[in-house]
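Worked example

This section walks through a single chain of length 730. The input is the sequence exactly as stored; nothing has been trimmed or padded.
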Amino acid sequence: MAARGGGQVGPAKKLKIKPLKLKPKLPANFVETTWAKLQRSIQAVFSEEKVAYSFEELYRAAEDLCLHKKAGFVYQNLVNECEAQVTRVLGKLSQNQGSTFLSELEKEWQTHCNQLLTIRSIFLYLDRTFVLQNAQLKSIFDMGLQLFCQQIEKSPGMERTLSSGLVEMIALERRGDQSVDRKILKSLVKMLLLLGLYSKHFEGEFLEETKSFYAKEGADKMRELSVLDYLVHCERRLEQEEEKCKEFLDALTNSPLMKIVEDCLLKRHLDEILDKGFNKFVDQLKLVDLRRLYKLCFRVGGSDLVRTALCNYVKEKAGEYVTDDKNGSRMVQNLIDLKAAIDKVVLECFDDEESFHSSLKEAFEYSINLRQNRPAELVAKYIDAKLRSGNKGGGEEELENVLDSVLVIFRYISGKDVFEAFYKKDLAKRLLLGKSSSIDAEKSTIGKFKTECGSQFTNKLEGMFKDVDTSRDIMAGFKNSASVQSKLKHGMELYVNVLTTGYWPTYPPVEANLPAELRDYQEVFNKYYLSKHSGRRLMWQNSLGLCVVKCKFKKATKELVVSLFQTVVLMLYNDADKLTYEDIEKATGIEPKELKRTLQSLSLGKVRVLVKEPKTKEVNPTDTFAFHYKFTAPLYRLRINNIQLKETKEENQNTTERVFQDRQYQVDAAIVRIMKSRKTLSHTLLISEIYSQLRFPIKPSDLKKRIESLIDREYLERDASNAQIYNYLA
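Given that input, the structure is written out below as tokens.
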């Protein structure tokens, strides 16, 4: 080391550490004194008195004991002190299990927890070293909880009072008792959870009481409340119980608790709820309430019951519409409205479940086919009314929507051949009498049927449109023909629709003595057409003829749109002012039934160009008919041919009979086709294959008749060894 001022450096000194001559010793009574200090402090904490020492001094004292290998001694003594305190406190409580027991227990529990936290802070070093290093020992706080738990379990009376008291508090709260102290309730339930006594001494009794409570409440409320109010009550109860679980019950209690509430309030009353309220909700389209009903039913696995209820509702309602003869004209619209309402319910209330749609399809099919032919006929007439000119519908878009909705009903019809027959008959009248509102709409409708049923279904319908287009070309050539024009009389025009027999409905021929002018025109057209198409034969259908004639009345001249038969009658009045029924019948040659209809339309309809005597509502052979010279009307052109559009009973019956006849042919053809390919077949298998090929309903007894008919006609024979087996005869 250098000295300041340039002095000499001396030798370095060595430091030596010498052991103590005497080993340090603890005071003889160190452990006893230190523990006594700690014990007094513990007792002061338990008795809620002021601690004489600072917490730092007490912490150091506990640490010193641990450092001097007295940790086990300290822990055991601490356990003894805590046990004595718990025994004293709970022993005193067990002697007084009156009305204040739960509140006093909750108070002692809170105090005990706070005291344990204080004591743990004093013995924190012990807790973090010695206790942590010994897995068999519990932490100071857990040890205090264990002692509290053991003391409760030593007193069966206290256990029962505690659990039954808590259950009673919850029951009172469910009944709406405002005096229940929820703070005490939550604190004691959490105490049971911390002590591990929850499932052993509380949960079972709590769930049993819950079951008893809600079983009684469910039965009582079901009698007292309306279905809607009951569902709202169930929703509120379920929310309350879920909130209870979140707030202070064990999370594992949630599942059994909610199952009990759902079973008692919902599952056992589902049938009654659906019977009393479901139909009303759907009738009034209460979507919010139906949604509530479905959600609650779904919780308890009752969605199948809701689906069944909805299908039964559809069967009942749709069945009423289909079987109601008095309101047949409203049937299709009612079914469309019902389908739209049910679709809305399924979409907005039942989560648009596919299973609902499948079941509803079956329900609608069942209901609509309760009557085999009438629904198909009415659907055809409904479409006819919408496609006719002069209907009160909206624009093209609205018409398209209407056709789409009625197509849904069409899908459910099993006898589509009946529909086809009536639709074809109505389409023919619309096309031939100029009553179609839109050819585009007509073709669009045919396109929808083609997509739905295939080209075979619409082949004849499309052929009708081809005939109309072909007729237009024929008439253009007819009018431009010089040879034709030279033979025609001026002041008259003729338009002919040439129809292919196979495409159009079958019309019975109705004879009439046509005026010479009309006969001449027909003859000119006959010669023209046959000159262009040799080998063909024309047959005039008088019942579908349409004429526009001018009538001169006293005050004005009017144009009348009339049927051919009406024209024949009116032209008689060019030569007479008054005619008897017999005169008219003899001159026209029209059959009596058709003549009466014609005279009714001219003398008893809205436009009365003939005056009938006597003035009765029916046409009789003794009546006379005079030309109404004084007739007036605001319009120049008047339509009187509506009788052509009206379907007679005979027409309806004939259409139905033709369908049944066609069905027989189809059944025969199917049987022969099957047997030709299979040669030999049992009765059961043959019936099964026939049903798979036919697109209309038929009874097994009717099929048996057709088989017998084919056997008689030697298309089939019964097997000689087994009468239930058929053989095909080539």
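What to look for: Residues 481 and 528 are 9 Å apart (CA to CA).
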